[in-house]
Amino acid sequence: MNIEDTQQAIIADFSVYDDWMDKYTYLIELGNELEPIDASYKIDQNLIRGCQSRVWLQQKLEGELLIFEAESDALIVKGLVALLLKVFSGRTPQEILDAEPYFIDEIGLRQHLSPTRSNGLMAMVKQIKLYALAYKQIASQKK
C-alpha cells in the first residue's frame, strides 16, 4: 500500500466515528498497539523538540526504505505517532519528501487537538521529513 492509499485508509477508519470522544478512544487504541521502542533509543538525541509530551523517534535505513520506530509517554500522542508511522515508515526518502500528510486535516486532527499537541504533531512530521532529506542526500553522495 502506498502513502496515498494509507492516508485514504486512515480517513476511512476515522469516518466511522461520529464524535470526537470516539475518535480519541480510537487514537488511544492505535497507540496501545504500537510496539515499544528499545530503551536504548529513549535518549535526548531522539526526542522530538516542540512536543508537549516526550516523543522518541528512531530511524534506520533498510535497503532503500526508511524505517521509523517511535514511542511517547502520553496516550493520545502515542496514537498520533502510530498514525505517522503507518504513513511514513517503510518508504523511500523521496516518497516521504513528496508526501503531504493531508489526512491530518481530513480527519480533523488539527482542529480538535490542543494547540500544543497540534504543534507537536507538526514537529514530528517535520523531523520525519528532515530524516528523509538527510538520507536522500547521503544516498546521492554515494552515487
Characterization of the model:
Helix 1 (about 5-15) packs antiparallel against helix 3, helix 2 (about 20-35) crosses helix 3 (about 75-90) and helix 3 (about 75-90) runs parallel beside helix 7. The chain is about 60% helix and about 10% strand. It has a single domain, classed as Sufe protein. Chain: A. It has seven helices and two strands. Strands 1-2 form a two-stranded antiparallel ribbon. It is globular and about 50 Å long. It has about 140 residues and is mainly α.
Which features characterize this protein?
143 residues, globular, two-stranded antiparallel sheet, mainly alpha, Sufe protein. Chain: A, single chain
Can I get a quick summary?
Helix content is 58%, strand content 11%.
List the helices and strands and how they pair.
Elements: H1 3-15, H2 20-33, E1 55-62, E2 65-72, H3 75-88, H4 93-98, H5 103-106, H6 109-112, H7 115-142
Antiparallel strand pairs: 1-2
Helix pairs in contact: 1-3, 2-3, 3-7
Determine the fraction of residues in helical runs and give it as a percent range: 55-70%
Strand arrangement, major sheet: 1-2
Q: What Rg is obtained from the alpha carbons, in whole angstroms?
A: 15 Å
**SSE order, one letter for each helix or strand:** HHEEHHHHH
